[in-house]
Amino acid sequence: MTDSYQHSIESRFAQAALNFVAKGVFPVELVCPITQTLMQVPVLTDQGNVYERAAIKKWLQMHSAGV
Questions:
Q1: Strand, coil or helix: what is 50?
Q2: What average pLDDT does this structure show over 56-61?
Q3: Are 23 and 30 within 8 A, CB to CB?
């Protein structure tokens, strides 16, 4: 996945999030499965899952310590 493609995805999520904040309605796709909060900086994994960047970074650091 290229950096420009990743940035494009992040930008689209950020704009959608702002639109939903304005309406006060949040679809489940914009909620991070780790934090259960609205994603501010979403990232798409190679497996197609979307997480809040800080949350998945922390999770990966905690769970790869023994690898």
A1: strand
A2: 94
A3: no
Query: What single-letter amino acid sits at 19?
Result: N
At CA 29, angle to CA 58 and CA 54, rounded to 5?
A: 15
Q: Output the CATH code of domain 3-63.
A: 3.30.40.10
Listing DSSP states for 7-43 in one string gives HHHHHHHHHHHHHHHHHT---GGGB-TTT-SB-SSEE
Task: Give residue limits of the domains in the chain.
Answer: 3-63
Instruction: Indicate the pTM of the whole model.
Output: 0.60
Which are the contacts of 22, defined by CB distance < 8 A and separation ≥ 6?
A: none
